[in-house]
């Protein structure tokens, strides 16, 4: 390394240090301006950014109905097997034909990388990313969740 490069590196290092210290110095001398989030004290008022991806959820309405047909597109789209769709059959009262329905929607939160591919692949917009982020547990098996609520049914007209 030439002397010129050596001096230039020192100059750039000192310059970046001073730039960083300027920000630190500002907040050190203005204690009223808090820029950090006071977590967990702010739990009640904490609002995450809209784009934040905390976990996959199956959307249910107030009548415990969802839009999941059990088509498995999300399971196929997931790159690491975080979703398992166990489907069943039901007789359609209108046509008398046997139709596929979701039996159990298994989601392994511990494996999920929050890539959003499952959400994008769902043809009925049945799932979405929710913003919950406090997922710490002592027992890893608790991170395997069933997303369809007990007794829930598919909304009429969703195929
Ligand atoms: S967000 Fe990505 S990793 Fe997580 S379940 Fe969906 S597809 Fe799989
Ligand atoms: S969530 Fe969507 S993609 Fe996944 S099985 Fe249900 S309908 Fe298909």
List its traits.
single chain; three-stranded antiparallel β-sheet; 22% strand; Alpha-Beta Plaits; two-stranded antiparallel ribbon; 159 residues; alpha+beta; 23% helix; binds iron/sulfur cluster
Commentary on this structure:
The protein is α+β, with helices and mostly antiparallel strands. The chain has 3 helices and 7 strands, in the order αββαββαβββ. The chain folds into 2 domains: 1-36; 55-154, Alpha-Beta Plaits. It has helices spanning 3-29, 73-77, 117-121, and strands at residues 55-58, 65-66, 83-91, 98-108, 127-130, 144-146, 153-154. It has a 3-stranded antiparallel beta sheet with strand order 3-4-6, with no helix packed on it. Strands 1-5 form a two-stranded antiparallel sheet. It is elongated, with a radius of gyration of 25 Å. The structure holds iron/sulfur cluster (2 copies).
Present the secondary structure layout.
Layout: H1 3-29, E1 55-58, E2 65-66, H2 73-77, E3 83-91, E4 98-108, H3 117-121, E5 127-130, E6 144-146, E7 153-154
Parallel strand pairs: 2-7
Antiparallel strand pairs: 1-5, 3-4, 4-6
Bound molecules: iron/sulfur cluster (2 copies).
């Amino acid at each position: 390394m030439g002397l010129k490069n050596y001096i230039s590196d020192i100059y750039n290092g000192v310059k970046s240090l001073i730039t960083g210290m300027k920000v630190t110095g500002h907040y050190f001398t203005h204690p009223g301006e808090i820029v950090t989030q006071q977590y967990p004290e702010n739990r009640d008022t904490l609002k995450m950014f809209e784009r934040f991806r905390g976990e996959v959820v199956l959307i249910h309405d107030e009548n415990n109905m969802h839009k999941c047909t059990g088509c498995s597109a999300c399971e196929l789209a997931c790159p690491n097997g975080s979703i398992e769709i166990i489907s069943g059959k039901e007789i359609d009262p209108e046509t008398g034909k046997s139709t596929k329905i979701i039996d159990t929607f298994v989601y392994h939160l511990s494996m999920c990388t929050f890539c959003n591919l499952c959400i994008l692949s769902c043809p009925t917009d049945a799932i979405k990313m929710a913003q919950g982020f406090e997922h710490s547990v002592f027992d890893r098996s608790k991170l395997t969740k069933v997303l369809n609520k007990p007794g829930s049914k598919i909304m009429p007209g969703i195929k």
